Amino acid sequence: MELRLRLLLAALLCWTCVCCANTDRAIDPSNSRVWGPGVEIPDRATLPARYFFIEPRDAESKKINESQKYDVHIIGQSRFGSCRYRLSQVDRHDGSSIIRYKLAESCSDVSIHVRHNSVHLSGSPFVIPGTLYSEQCYCPQGSVDEWLETVGCPLGDPQIDMDLIPFRAINFSSLRTRMIQQYDKPGSISHCNYVILRNQVHRRCYGQHTGFSKFMDTILLSLARKFTLPDMELFVNLGDWPLVKKGGQSRTTGPFPIFSWCGSDDTFDIVMPTYDITESTLENMGRVMLDMLSIQRRGVPWAEKHPRAFWRGRDARRERLELVALARFYPDLLNASLTNFFFFREEESEFGPRVAHISMHDFFDYRYQINVDGTVAAYRLPYLLAGSSVVLKQDSFYYEHFYRKLVPMRHYIPFEADLSNLLQQIQWARDNDEQAREIRDNANAFINANLLPLDIYCYHALLFKEYAKYIVSPIQVQPGMEKIEQPDEAYHCPCERTTLPRDEL
Ligand SMILES: *[C@@H]1O[C@H](CO)[C@@H](O)[C@H](O)[C@H]1NC(C)=O
Ligand SMILES: *[C@@H]1O[C@H](CO)[C@@H](O)[C@H](O)[C@H]1NC(C)=O
Ligand SMILES: *[C@@H]1O[C@H](CO)[C@@H](O)[C@H](O)[C@H]1NC(C)=O
């Protein structure tokens, strides 16, 4: 839902920030750390953009917090000659950098050279065995279990465990027709029934607004290029609101298994990473430019940020109007304005005027960021947590797939759903600057441990692996389903590892 905002911001984004630091302390190449899937397992973790981190250290192994310029080269062979790639450096606000590279085609005999002032950093050059496949290449490598292990995904997730508790024996032979009838409300609900069989994706959608099925198609096809998906059948809700209410019908028939992008405390929907963060994973260094890596770009240093809270967004919920009203009374604490009126148009004169969108990077000129629900959870939360400010989050019964792992006062500062203690919490952050900054650091670390592109793939893989185990009905392509094809490029690449015949396709 913040997609439009993100596309707007894209243009304003700096990719390859060239930063030349005038460092007091000399960086010691052999003590500096270079790590991440892009240098450790680039042959196994086939990502749209591969990435790794550089943390500069001095001779005493102390972190250097000034930004540095690194010289990164990839040498390798492709069937067109030397390996072609695009590369970008995201200079973070603590001296460390993220390096991303996107291969134009599959490459082999690859080595990755990471230098600072022409000296190799620790571990460089990284010599990569095997082939680095382009993400577009259809080249599934074993089963989902094998893939999860090969790339080192977590073994489980508390949200997945919770979500699947009610679904221990899913029998679509008896559920399918009832589910389609229950959600046959074309004006208000749109959903799709998917069948994955022999690593091919089939679906049939119901409702008027089925365009969002492309997000689901894209992630399923992308997963299928990496490993063999378990055979399974699933229903995906394409709307904002979770559908499977607790109590009522769920009590008598048992809840229906439905996948949604947003969950809530009063529903049984099985939560997936939002289409927003999934899209930014799939289109990393591609069409979408604001993602979990680029958002980490260095901005105004903490000490120079305005010591005020900041918020921009549209009028998707009453509390957002109240936030704007609060900002009028307390401009020293809070800068909040609406960028669009849609739900409360008749109140524009009172809560307007609307202001222009600004780049999310500029949000971080302010030390405190406010996250308030929109129609459901605000899908910007991951971006705010990844930035250089501290987040104040509204209490809410809506959640995304990772909220369960967030801890209030460790990763963000909470405030009441009705905003009643928001001003106190902003004041607390001002009075406890060290702690606020520490919460910011914890949030950044959380993002880098849980929400980077590989983590988004891991979550989907783990979720579908666990879910598929509980289906007891036969997996069969249903009448009226269409087959969703891989992009053409998928088969125009040599693939040496696949275990599946590519052309019983
Ligand atoms: C870097 O660290 C030093 C000492 O730890 C500190 O005084 C300085 O403010 C830091 N600089 C930045 C840009 O954070
Ligand atoms: C699934 O439901 C169908 C139709 O009600 C029934 O015939 C079948 O035995 C069920 N399968 C299992 C494994 O319970
Ligand atoms: C609120 O923020 C915008 C964008 O940074 C700025 O132009 C404006 O002057 C701020 N308003 C107040 C009252 O400080």
UniProtKB/TrEMBL annotation:
<feature type="signal peptide">
    <location>
        <begin position="1"/>
        <end position="21"/>
    </location>
</feature>
<keyword id="KW-0808">Transferase</keyword>
<feature type="repeat" description="Filamin">
    <location>
        <begin position="24"/>
        <end position="130"/>
    </location>
</feature>
<dbReference type="InterPro" id="IPR014756">
    <property type="entry name" value="Ig_E-set"/>
</dbReference>
<dbReference type="InterPro" id="IPR013783">
    <property type="entry name" value="Ig-like_fold"/>
</dbReference>
<dbReference type="GO" id="GO:0005788">
    <property type="term" value="C:endoplasmic reticulum lumen"/>
</dbReference>
<dbReference type="InterPro" id="IPR006598">
    <property type="entry name" value="CAP10"/>
</dbReference>
<protein>
    <recommendedName>
        <fullName>Glycosyl transferase CAP10 domain-containing protein</fullName>
    </recommendedName>
</protein>
<dbReference type="GO" id="GO:0046527">
    <property type="term" value="F:glucosyltransferase activity"/>
</dbReference>
<feature type="domain" description="Glycosyl transferase CAP10">
    <location>
        <begin position="228"/>
        <end position="474"/>
    </location>
</feature>
<keyword id="KW-0328">Glycosyltransferase</keyword>
<dbReference type="InterPro" id="IPR001298">
    <property type="entry name" value="Filamin/ABP280_rpt"/>
</dbReference>
<dbReference type="InterPro" id="IPR051091">
    <property type="entry name" value="O-Glucosyltr/Glycosyltrsf_90"/>
</dbReference>
<comment type="similarity">
    <text>Belongs to the KDELC family.</text>
</comment>
<comment type="pathway">
    <text>Protein modification.</text>
</comment>
<dbReference type="Pfam" id="PF00630">
    <property type="entry name" value="Filamin"/>
</dbReference>
<keyword id="KW-0325">Glycoprotein</keyword>
<dbReference type="Pfam" id="PF05686">
    <property type="entry name" value="Glyco_transf_90"/>
</dbReference>
<keyword id="KW-0256">Endoplasmic reticulum</keyword>
<dbReference type="InterPro" id="IPR017868">
    <property type="entry name" value="Filamin/ABP280_repeat-like"/>
</dbReference>
<keyword id="KW-0732">Signal</keyword>
<comment type="function">
    <text>Protein O-glucosyltransferase. Catalyzes the reaction that attaches glucose through an O-glycosidic linkage to a conserved serine residue found in the consensus sequence C-X-S-X-[PA]-C in epidermal growth factor-like repeats. Regulates Notch signaling by glucosylating Notch in the ER, glucosylation is required for the correct folding and cleavage of Notch.</text>
</comment>
